[in-house]
Design goal:
2 copies of one chain form a homodimer. With about 475 residues, the first copy, chain A, is of the alpha+beta class. Chain A is built from 15 helices and 18 strands. The first copy, chain A, has helices at about 10-20, 30-35, 60-70, 125-130, 150-155, 160-165, 200-205, 240-250, 260-270, 295-310, 325-335, 335-340, 355-370, 400-420, 445-460; strands at about 25-30, 50-55, 75-80, 95-100, 105-110, 115, 135, 170-180, 185, 210-220, 220-225, 230-235, 255-260, 285-290, 315-320, 345-350, 375-380, 385-395. In chain A, the strands form 4 sheets. Chain A has a 7-stranded antiparallel sheet with strand order 15-12-14-13-17-18-16, sandwiched between helices. In chain A, strands 5-6-10-8-9 form a 5-stranded antiparallel sheet.
Chain lengths: ~475, ~475
C-alpha cells in the first residue's frame, strides 16, 4: 500500500479539479459540512476532510475514484455515519464521498422478493418499503433510522435478529461496486445459485470501504413474521441463561435471544417511562422472541417456560399478549444503550462462541472487580449469537481523562481474554480506526498479511478509506 | 500465475522426495490408483497424475504444499470425486492430495450446534451424526453418500434444500485452510458475529481448491424439521408453475420447490419401481415440501392448493400422508438424473433469477426445437432457486461423436442466452475445467482479472489445482 503523501497540488487546486466531476453545488468545503460529514458516532478523532463530494450516479463515483488515484488523495465513504469504530471518519485530508443523493429504491421484484437500492437508502426506508409490499427486511438495530444500506454492507451490520436471520451478508443478492482502481463490478447479479469462481461479493461485504465502494445493492426480503411474541425471563445467575437458551432453541425457531443484567434494567426502569416486566428481582434477564404463528407454538413456549422454572433456571417471567406488550418488553432491552450514555460508558463489542460465554463473562468480571472495585459493569447483548456488549460506567468522582486512561488498561486485559477464548474483538461494529491496533488479538499475522495483499489487488494506490482496518 | 514447466527432476526422483513427507504406504503410484484418484464423475479428460498422496494430518498437508512449491508441481485436491466439472481431475502430472484418511468427526458442541470435521468426512456421515444428536445437517444432494465436506466447501455445494437452508456456505462456522504458500489459516473461529476485517473464509468457499485446501471445518447443525410433507402438483403449462411457487411461498416456509417435465416423469415411471402421483397427464409438475408442524400448517397448504386449482394453475395434485409417501414422491424427482443417463444426456447446470425462468426456458426450448427438432429435451431442477438442469437426450440413430459435436453448438447458444438473462453458466457444479473457457459468459473481464490477482496472492506459484476455473 502506498503511503499517502502530501499531494503536489494545493488544497484549492485539488478542490477545483474535483468540482467539475460532480453536479453544481455537490462539492462542499464549508467548515460545518467538513465537521458534520467528517465523522461518525465515535468521538476519538477530529474530523479534517478536504471536501465532501455528493455523487449522484455510478459514473460520478467512478470519476471521483479515478481523480483520487491520479492525485493520490484518500476517499472516505459516508453513509448514515452511525458507525462506532471510526470507519467513516475523515481525519487526514481525505475527500468524503457521501451517498446522501444516491438514496432511491430503483426496483422491486415480487417473485424474487428483491429490492434494488442505491447505497444511500436508509435502513428504515427499506424496512418500510418492504412492509408496503407485505414483506419484511429483517436486519434491524438501534440506528436503523439513520444508517444506510451501503454502510450496512460495508460493516456487515448485525443487530437484534441475527439468531434467526443472520447478518446483512445474508440479504445481499447482488451488488455493484466501484473498486479502488475505478472499475465497476457487477457482483453475483442477484442469483441464488452461482458457482462461477470466487464470490467477490462476499469480500466486499464487511470490508469497510477499503476495497471499493458499494454503488448499488439488490437486497432480499423475507415473509413477514407472524404474531411476534416476546418473553422476559429472570434467572438466578448468569449460568442459568445458557440452559434456558438451549431449551427454547430445541423447541422453537427463536427470532431473538437477548440478555441484560439487573444493573442495566435498574437504569432503564429509573427513567420512569417503561413498565417493569414483573416484580421479582433477578441478577440477570433473558428476552426471547418467536413467532406464535399458531396456538400450539404458544403452548410449546409456555411448556418450555414451565420446564425452565422446574429446573430452577428461571425465577419469574412474562409473555407478551399484544403488540403493545411486545414493544414494552423490547424497550427494557433497547433503551439500555441510550440510558447508560449518561454515565460516559467505556464500551466494548465482543463475541465468543455461545457455549464459551459464561466462562468468558466470569473472567472479564473478575478482572474488572479485582482491579477496579469502584467501577460499575453493565452487561447486555445478543447472547443467542455470542455477542456481548461490555459497558463500564464512569464513577462520579473520577475525571473523564482518568477514567479513560484506566479503561485503556482494562482494554488490554479484555482483548487478551477475548484471544484466550478465540473470540472477536469486534463482533459487529467493525475495525475502523478504533480497533485496528488490536486486530492481532483476533486475526493471525499471516491472515492480516493476506488481507493487506488482497487490499492491494483492489486498491493498489491505497486511496480507499485509508487507515481503516489497517494502519496506513 | 507461473506456467508449470516440466520439472527438472525425473518422475522417480520427485516421487522419492515426496514419499518421506507421508506415512509409509500413503503415496500410491500404481496404475489403478492413478486412474481411480485422477478423475471425478466427468469423463472428458484422461487422468494422468504423478502420484496420489494421502496425508493424515494438517502438518503433512503443509509439507506436501511446501514440497510442491519447491518443485513447481501442481496439486489436485481429491474428496469424494463426485464433481461434475472436472475440478478434481489430475490430467497433467499433478499430485493428487486425497483426504480419504482425514475423515474423522473431531468434536461436537450441543450448545453451539457445531461439528468439527476433517475434510474427508462424507456428507452422509455428517448427516447421520447430526441425526444421532437429534439435529440435522440440511445440505443434501444425490451424491451425499460419497461426496466429502472438503469438496462440498470447495464447490459450495447446493442441492435440493437451498430454498430454505441455502448453500454449504451458510453452514461453515469456521475452517482451517492451508494456502498455496503453505500457511495454515484458522478462519473465523466458529463465531457467529465477527467484524474484524475481510471474511477470507468466504473466499475459500467455492474456490475449488485453487487458493488453498480445506483441512478442517466446523459445520453448523440445525433443528430437525418436523413432519416433512411433500406435494406433487401438475400444471397446464410451465408459466403456471411460477404463480404456484409465489402462492405457496406467501403462505408457508417451503423446504424445497422442484420441478420436472412430463418427459422426465415418463422416463422415471417407465422404470416400473415408482408409483405415479396421480393419473392426470400434465406437461409440467412441481414438487414442493414443507414442515407440516401443526394441523394448521397442513390446512394452510391444502387451502393454497385449492386456490391454485381455482386459478387454473394446477390441474391435479397429491399431498404425502406418511414418511413412505413422502419418499415415493421424492423418487419421482430424484430418480430422473440416474434414469436418463441411459440416453447419454448432454447436461447443463444453469441458473437465472427466479422471475426470469419462464422466458429463459422458452428461449432455450425455441433454440433447440428450431435447430434440432429430433433432440428430446428433458427439463428438471430446483426451480425455487432458479437452478435449471437442461438435459438433451441423444437420438438413437445419432453417433455419440456426432451428438456431442452438435451439442457444442447448442452449448454456445445456451450460454449466450444465459448471458442475455444475466444468469450463471454453472449454478452449482462449479467451473473446473469443463466450464473455464465459458467463464466470460457469467463474469466480466475485469472480475476475472481480479480473481486471477486474488489467486496470485494465495498461490503465487500456481500450484493449487492448476488449470481449474482459469486456464493455466
Amino acid at each position: 500500500m502506498n503511503h499517502l503523501r502530501v499531494p503536489p497540488m494545493t488544497r484549492e487546486a485539488l478542490i477545483e479539479s474535483l468540482k467539475p466531476l460532480l453536479e453544481p453545488g455537490k462539492l462542499l468545503t464549508d467548515a460545518d459540512s467538513l465537521d458534520a460529514y467528517g465523522k461518525d458516532w465515535t468521538k476519538h478523532f477530529a474530523p479534517a476532510p478536504l471536501a465532501i463530494a455528493f455523487p449522484k450516479s455510478i459514473e460520478q463515483v467512478q470519476a471521483v475514484v479515478r481523480w483520487a488515484n491520479e492525485h493520490k488523495v484518500g476517499l472516505v465513504p459516508s453513509g448514515g455515519r452511525t458507525g462506532l469504530s471510526a470507519a467513516a471518519v475523515a481525519a487526514n485530508g481525505e475527500v468524503v464521498v457521501s451517498f446522501d443523493y444516491m438514496n432511491k429504491i430503483l426496483d422491486f421484484n415480487a417473485f424474487d422478493r428483491t429490492v434494488v437500492c442505491q447505497p444511500g437508502v436508509v435502513t428504515k426506508q427499506l424496512q418500510l418499503f418492504a412492509e408496503e409490499q407485505g414483506l419484511y427486511y429483517p436486519v434491524d438495530f438501534a440506528s436503523s433510522g439513520s444508517s444506510q444500506i451501503g454502510g450496512n454492507i460495508g460493516t456487515n451490520a448485525g443487530g437484534i435478529k441475527v439468531i434467526r436471520y443472520g447478518m446483512t451478508r445474508n440479504w445481499v443478492a447482488g451488488m455493484k461496486v466501484v473498486t479502488g482502481k475505478g472499475d465497476l463490478l457487477e457482483l453475483n447479479k442477484d442469483l441464488i445459485k452461482n458457482a462461477t469462481g470466487y464470490d467477490l461479493r462476499q469480500l466486499f461485504i464487511g470490508a469497510e470501504g477499503t476495497l471499493g465502494f458499494v454503488v448499488e445493492a439488490t437486497m432480499r426480503l423475507e415473509r413477514t413474521p407472524k404474531n411476534l411474541t416476546a418473553m422476559v425471563l429472570g434467572t438466578p445467575d448468569f449460568d442459568s441463561i445458557m440452559p434456558v437458551l438451549h431449551a427454547f432453541q430445541g423447541k422453537l425457531d427463536l427470532t431473538a435471544f437477548e440478555f441484560f443484567s439487573d444493573k442495566a434494567l435498574a437504569k432503564v426502569l429509573a427513567r420512569g417511562d417503561v413498565p417493569a416486566a414483573f416484580e421479582t428481582d433477578c441478577p440477570f434477564y433473558a428476552l426471547l422472541e418467536f413467532e406464535a404463528s399458531t396456538e400450539e407454538v404458544a403452548n410449546e413456549a409456555l411448556a418450555t417456560f414451565e420446564h425452565c422454572v422446574e429446573q430452577g433456571w428461571v425465577l419469574d417471567g412474562v409473555m407478551s399478549q399484544s403488540e403493545q406488550q411486545l414493544q414494552n418488553l423490547w424497550k427494557l432491552r433497547e433503551y439500555i444503550s441510550e440510558t447508560i450514555s449518561h454515565w460516559t460508558p467505556y464500551k466494548n463489542d465482543i463475541s465468543v462462541t455461545v457455549s464459551k460465554v459464561p466462562a468468558f463473562l466470569k473472567d472479564i468480571d473478575a478482572i474488572v472487580e479485582a482491579n477496579y472495585p469502584d467501577f460499575e459493569v453493565v452487561w447486555f447483548g445478543h447472547i443467542g449469537d455470542g455477542n456481548l456488549h461490555l459497558n463500564i460506567l464512569k464513577p462520579e468522582n473520577l475525571s473523564k481523562d482518568e477514567f479513560f486512561a484506566k479503561c485503556a488498561t482494562v482494554n488490554k486485559w479484555v482483548f487478551e481474554t477475548v484471544q484466550k477464548y478465540a473470540g472477536s474483538i469486534s463482533a459487529e461494529h467493525g475495525v475502523g480506526m478504533t480497533k485496528r491496533d488490536y486486530l492481532g488479538y483476533s486475526r493471525s499475522e499471516a491472515e492480516i498479511g493476506y488481507m493487506k495483499a488482497v487490499k492491494a489487488v483492489f486498491d493498489p494506490n491505497g486511496i480507499m478509506n485509508p487507515g481503516k482496518i489497517f494502519a496506513e
